[in-house]
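Hi all, long-time lurker, first post. I run a small reading group and we've been trying to get comfortable going from sequence to structure in the token notation. Rather than ask abstract questions, I figured I'd post a concrete chain and ask someone more experienced to write out its structure so we can walk through it together at our next meeting. Sequence below, copied exactly:
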Amino acid sequence: ESPRRQPSPRRNYGYGRTCPNCGYGQERCRGYDVCPARGQYCDNCGRRGHFSRACRSVRRSLLRRPRDQVEQIVDD
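-- Answer (accepted) --
Happy to help. Here is the structure in token form:
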């Protein structure tokens, strides 16, 4: 009987690719099981499991753009 294989990390990123959860390359992230973003909350959307640098939601800063302020000049 052949020995069972150990489950591998969820994803091993190829050369030059980045993790979709933390945004780091293979030197810092070796798969979801050891991803630094695992269990962390996103500063952009507030959801768990990824960093804001890898967030796929529309950035909050784009949603809350300050409106142009117009100052009224009164001539005396």
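A couple of things your group might point at:
The CA atoms of residues 21 and 50 lie 4 Å apart.
The longest helix spans residues 60-63.
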